[in-house]
Each structure stands twice: as structure tokens, then as C-alpha cells.
Amino acid sequence: MTTKKTIKSAFESMMFVWGEPLDVKTAADVFDISWKEAYDCFLELKQEYEQEGRGIRIIEINKTFQFITNGDNAPYIERLCTPVKEKKLSQSALEVLAIIAYKQPITKGEIDSIRGIKCDRVIEGLLKKELIQEKGRSNGIGRPILYGTTDAFLGHFGFENIRDLPDIENIESAVTAEDPEDEVYAQQIKLDF
Fold first, then answer.
1. Closest C-alpha among 113, 94, 88, 89 to residue 187
2. Shared domain check, 95 and 52
3. pTM of the model
4. Among residues 165, 13, 155, which one has the least CA distance to residue 104?
5. Residue 182 has pLDDT above 80, yes or no
């Protein structure tokens, strides 16, 4: 014999996976119980959720039951679901990305040498953002990894192919200097190359 506790537990699971209002008759048929018995289980379950002040509530719609979120939590849900502002690349990430874009395929050691500082974490971050990728191995000592840009890089910066990169000599005019950060970026690229 199935206990009421088991039936209510199963109804919770069924509502969770059903995704739309669960009809009392459908739930009753699963357990081969009367419609009234299933309906009473749903009502008890609904009352338990309300009494405990849970973040999930159960509503009744024309003899069907469905999970909904607690309306008091709407501001938190809204904050959670609001698209996160896209983070800009750091100055160091832009420098490394520019070096890779213009010198690819290039090893980490060569990038470190151009920047004069280790770039392990920056390269790792650019790999995670899928702006760069491994392009094979160099024939040099230790066969270091070669890095190059990705199609995501081209799409992100509006290039059709890598040949669309501005000439290094003309880089300053390619970057609008209205934003002070852009001006620094243009100067930095000019200094690096």
C-alpha cells in the first residue's frame, strides 16, 4: 500500500518534470487512486509549501497543479536572469591578443619576449574566451605550443579574415581616440610593435 507521504512526494517530482500544469486525473491514474484522493494530496502539498514560506509555490489552475516561484523573490530572480554585462578585455589581454593576431602562429615564449612579462594567465583567459586557439607545435626546442586567433576573434572584431587587420603603421588611425582607454590602447600597440 502506498502512503500519502509517498504519493505527495511523487506528485512533487511529477510536477517538477511535467513542466506545465499537471492534471489531477492524470496524477490519480498513475497511482490508481480516486480523483478526490489525488486532489486532497495536491491541496495538502500546496498548503505545506505556503506554510513553510518556500521559494517555490504550488498553484491550482482549473483542477491542475503547477510549481511557480514565490512572487516575493521576483527581484532576485530578475537580477539573476538579467544578462550579465559583457566584460571588456583588460589592457594586458588586448596587448597579448594584438601580438597573437599580428604574429600568429606564435609561441608563449615569443609573446613573453615581446611584452617583457609572462603571459600565462592572459593566454589562459583568451583561450577560455575562445579568442585564441592552439595552432600546433613549433619545431623549436621543447616543441612549444603555437597560438593563433579564432573565427570568434574575427567575428568579435568585425573582420572577415585575418588579412582585414589594419596595417601596424596605420593602427593609430584605425582606433578612434575619443575614449581615453582607446587612446592608451593605440599607443600601447604602437609601442609593442
1. 94
2. no
3. 0.48
4. 165
5. no
Which grid coordinates belong to 177? Answer: 581616440
Structural domain contains residue 86? no
Asked if the structure places residue 190 within a domain, the reply is: no
Q: DSSP labels for the chain?
A: ---HHHHHHHHHHHHHHH-SPEEHHHHHHHHT--HHHHHHHHHHHHHHHHHTT-SEEEEEETTEEEEEE-GGGHHHHHHHHSPPPPPPPPHHHHHHHHHHHHH-SEEHHHHHHHHTS--HHHHHHHHHTTSEEEEEE-SSTT-PEEEEE-HHHHHHHT-SSGGGSPPGGGHHHHS--SSHHHHHHHHHHHHH-
β-pair partners for 137: 145
Q: How far apart are CA 50 and CA 69, in angstroms?
A: 11
Total domains, the chain = 2
| Domain ranges, residue 133 | 91-180
Q: Does 47 reside within a domain? A: yes
pLDDT at res. 190: 40
State pLDDT tens for residues 110-159.
Answer: 999 999 989 999 999 999 999 999 999 999 889 999 999 999 888 888 88
